[in-house]
Write a structure and sequence with these properties.
The chain is mainly α. It has a single domain, classed as ADP-ribosylglycohydrolase fold (Orthogonal Bundle). The protein has helices at 3-21, 28-35, 61-76, 81-94, 105-115, 120-123, 131-134, 137-141, 147-158, 165-181, 188-202, 214-225, 231-242, 248-261, 266-276, 280-295, 302-310, 312-316, 319-331. α9 (147-158) packs across α11 (188-202). The longest helix is centred in the N-terminal third of the chain and has 19 residues, at 3-21. The two termini are 19 Å apart. Bound molecules: magnesium ion (MG). Magnesium ion binds at residues 60-62, 102, 281-282. Residues 60-62, 102, 281-282 line the site of magnesium ion.
């Protein structure tokens, strides 16, 4: 499979998971009572706390920020703190961040500090939630086969809003996993190993903060994923033992869990992540970005690609052009 297919798969996978998980409720029982298995794109129920009123197939902050970062890094010729600042602040303003229900707590605090003129390295010094990981997949795509470099650049993507060792660890895990997933001979085992390496290396960057080990949470989640129990039982265990709150440790751990449960198939991974509930769109976006980079664009269902392309928000990011740009940058063309 060629690099272009894997880059496209990573970007479309990010959006696939985001849109598939978007309607899920916070609580698994409420999700299953309402939908059963979520087997396709669905609109968010009107009473959804964050996504009420969104149509089927709509991406959210996760993919919008990821694509905004990708665009800014292509314009800058690589990953820089300045490009990260510009991408996130521009996204916040473009989407009416002051009123938006889906700006996360660390991102809002960081953006408001940046707008007050704070140094970018100070603005994010307390950011420890999952926004750092939900948007970082393009950094992995920019470093095929180079997980250590991916972790270093993942930290630069964290700085303005999530400059803590906990967030850098979570983002490093995802970027390193994507950087290996996008290589031709990637396996699920090598992707998980890269994630654990990235978590350990990423933890050496940023403000020393409080939070448990991302690496160990990934290991725990993979153990649950590999149990012989029915999928619903394993999803319950992931929800209860790993967690799917805004904690980046939980989110990244759970994402690796559903990635392994779904054997790296993007649509299966998305379905599991959606039905896991909690911050489902974020878990799904992360897991499916990795899965899409692993299996390439042809593994993303055609109906999903068509639905995403037909959505005005997704279309506004011109993802095929982002994929072209990433391929050119990494191949030195
Ligand atoms: Mg979201």
């Amino acid at each position: 499979m060629n690099l272009k297919s894997k880059i496209l798969g990573g970007l479309y996978g990010q959006a696939l998971g985001d849109a598939w998980g978007m309607p899920a409720y916070f609580d698994p029982d409420q999700t299953w009572r309402t939908f059963g298995w979520i087997t396709t794109f669905l609109p968010a129920p009107a009473d959804h706390e964050v996504h009420g009123g969104l149509p089927a197939g709509r991406i959210t902050d996760d993919s919008e920020q990821a694509f905004s970062l990708a665009r800014a890094y292509l314009a800058a010729g690589g990953v820089t703190v300045d490009a990260s600042v510009k991408a996130i602040v521009d996204w916040y303003d473009r989407t009416g961040g002051d009123q938006s229900r889906y700006v996360g707590p660390s991102t809002r605090r960081g953006v408001l500090a940046l707008k007050r003129g704070e140094d970018p390295y100070q603005a994010g010094r307390m950011g420890d939630t999952n926004g750092a990981a939900m948007r970082v997949s393009p950094v992995g795509l920019l470093h095929p086969g180079a997980p250590v470099a991916a972790v270093e650049d993942a930290y630069l993507s964290c700085v303005p809003t999530h400059n803590t060792n906990v967030a850098s660890s979570g983002a490093g895990a995802v970027a390193a996993a994507v950087s290996i997933a996008v290589t031709p001979d990637a396996t699920l085992d090598s992707i998980v190993a890269a994630g654990i390496l990235g978590a350990e290396l990423g933890r050496k960057r940023g403000t020393v903060w409080l939070g448990p080990s991302v690496a160990r949470r990934i290991e725990m989640a993979v153990q649950i994923a590999l149990r012989p129990d029915e999928p619903l039982v394993r999803l319950r265990d992931l929800y209860a033992d790993i967690g799917t709150s805004l904690s980046i440790v939980e989110t990244v751990g759970a994402a690796f869990g559903v990635l392994v449960m779904g054997k790296g198939d993007p649509a299966t991974v998305a379905m599991y992540a959606a039905n896991l509930s909690g911050d489902a769109d974020t878990v799904a976006a992360i897991a499916c970005a990795i899965a899409g980079a692993y299996q390439g664009i042809d593994a993303i269902p055609e109906w999903a690609v068509a639905a995403l392309n037909a959505d005005e928000i997704f279309a506004s990011y011109d993802v095929p052009a982002l994929a072209d740009g990433i391929e050119k940058l990494v191949s030195g063309a």
